[in-house]
Design brief:
Number of helices: 19
Radius of gyration: 27 Å
Low-confidence stretches: none
Distance between the termini: 66 Å
Shape: globular
Strand content: 15-25%
Bound molecules: iron/sulfur cluster
Structural class: alpha/beta
Helix content: 40-55%
CATH architecture of the largest domain: 2-Layer Sandwich
Length: 490
């Protein structure tokens, strides 16, 4: 390992919080476990980085293992001396700071530096990331012509083979980077001093814990914050949460009665204190009055490939791959179940919509939970495949949102903890039915495991993942059926 105190990523962590930098460097094993959906985001970054190398063909990789940074630094130096015109993952070390540049390309005597990002715009953090590279390369004696961010063009629509020239935007940021050089010099020397300290910096939790990124040491720093606290008050501004917390009001029951919460927030606090359930029977009756049998209970799952995998799709477009549909002919009738899960070999959208339109061909209200999601997916399919648009519009006109009674607090129990997400509403209302025993417990995991099916070669794993997905999506509509029955009985 090359002798370095700071790297690009640890610099960014240090700018967010000194303590985060220190923990990352010296207490790495205290870091929170990486979830499957977070891991999918990291993998996405790597894949996009490799794809962007195609923009500058015939380059040489200096390192494919950042842990062997001393080798990478030496190899980069040798490649430059040899006259190499394009280097991927080029490593440089200056004054205890190691940076690895995604792509550097020679133009005349000077170099163009490219930092690849898998997002669709340039953030302040990306400017800092590029600025520390510029600082180190310049001090290593590299003559720099330009420095740019390569990021994803969200207007690109795939048509045939992937067109990397159109998929990526390349934007020079050299002017902004030059303006940040004094800041980088100041902060790198300050952060190196932080790392030379013998004790963990005493920094209380604050807004920085999730801005600009969720910190990976929240499990450690937030360990004394109770599971249900002022941080769980729905729609309360972050500043106000920390204002309460810093004044010692941590649990909901601690909040002074004259504190400026709105009516819904006081309802959440008071229901928690008194353990009272609120039921507005008139409003629920009004909501149910338009819902007549037969009924469908419908739920979709989708995934968002950063790099469009299918024709007529854009980067990060939500591609529906699965649905579950319960059908209730009339009050008390046996439930029928329909479902679809794409086989992960091609574009799921046409098989998805063809079966869905067929399964919902009978008249009847279609209940969903959070209708904007399902309606948006249907409208996107109608736009991309206009041959289905007339039938899709008919289905959209039948959709009713079962989330409304909970969103509008016609029904609220303390166990919902201020949330109207089905993941909170279900266990609060229905005992014995929960996501806890499922392998897949939330939509983010469903998306990432489905995407992994495209690359999975082990048939046993494929079958297991598909079964888990089917169980998860079925639970969503079964939950809606039970929630509907409870509202109906009221
Ligand atoms: S959780 Fe907050 S205080 Fe703790 S290291 Fe992270 S950002 Fe800093």
């Amino acid at each position: 390992m090359a002798n370095h105190l700071l790297s690009k990523s640890s610099f960014i962590k240090g700018i967010q919080c000194d303590k985060q930098l220190y923990l990352y460097k010296y207490h790495y094993n205290w870091m929170d476990k990486v979830s499957e959906s977070q891991q999918a985001i990291f993998n996405r970054g790597t894949n996009v980085g490799v794809l962007a190398q195609q923009l500058f063909a015939n380059g040489t990789i200096a390192t494919d293992d950042p842990r062997k940074s001393d080798e990478a630094v030496a190899k980069t130096k040798a490649l430059i001396e040899k006259g190499c015109q394009a280097i991927y993952e080029a490593a440089f070390l200056y004054d205890n700071i190691l940076v690895i540049s995604d792509i550097i390309v020679k133009e005349g005597r000077k170099w163009n530096i490219y930092e690849v990002k898998s997002s669709t715009s340039i953030s302040e953090t990306y400017l800092l990331d590029a600025s520390i590279q510029y600082y180190v390369l310049l001090n290593c004696g590299i003559e720099i012509n330009d420095i740019s961010i390569i990021y994803i063009n969200n207007q690109y629509i795939r048509n045939g083979n992937l067109n990397t020239q159109s998929l990526f935007n390349i934007e020079s940021i050299i002017d902004k980077v030059i303006l940040l050089q004094d800041f980088v010099a100041r902060e790198t020397s300050r952060l190196k001093e932080v790392l030379k300290g013998k004790v963990i910096p005493q920094i209380p939790i604050g807004k920085q814990c999730s801005d600009p990124y969720p910190c990976s040491f929240m499990g450690y720093c937030w360990r004394d914050v109770p599971e249900y606290s002022v941080f769980d008050i729905a729609n309360l501004k972050t500043e106000m949460k920390f204002e309460l917390y810093n004044q010692g009001y941590i649990k909901l029951e601690d909040i002074p009665i004259n504190y400026g919460l709105n009516d819904k927030q006081w309802m959440q606090v008071n229901c928690h204190i008194t353990n009272e359930t609120i039921i507005d029977k008139v409003a629920i009756k009004e909501f149910l009055s338009d819902i007549t049998y037969p009924l469908y209970f419908m739920d979709f799952e989708s995934f968002m490939p950063a790099i469009p995998m299918f024709n007529e799709s854009r980067p990060y477009q939500q591609i529906p791959f699965q649905y579950s549909l319960h059908y209730m002919r009339n009050n008390g009738s046996t439930l029928e179940h329909f479902e679809f899960l794409a086989d992960a070999t091609g574009d799921p959208r046409i098989p998805f919509i063809t079966k869905l339109l067929n399964d919902t061909i009978n008249d009847g209200i279609i209940l969903v939970y959070n209708k904007s999601f399902e309606i948006s997916r249907l409208k996107e399919i109608a736009k991309d495949f206009p041959e289905f648009s007339i039938e899709i519009e008919k289905r959209i006109s039948r959709i009713v949102d079962l989330m409304i009674p909970f969103q509008k607090r016609y029904y609220y129990t303390p166990a919902m903890k201020g949330s109207y997400s089905i993941k909170y509403v279900l266990p609060a209302l229905v005992s014995g039915l929960s996501y806890d025993n499922l392998e897949i417990k939330e939509g983010g995991t469903a998306s990432s495991v489905f995407e992994s099916l495209y690359y999975e070669t082990d048939l046993f794993s494929c079958t297991e993942i598909k079964n888990d997905l089917l169980e998860y999506c079925k639970m969503d509509t079964l939950a809606m059926v039970e929630i509907f029955k409870i509202l109906h009985n009221i």
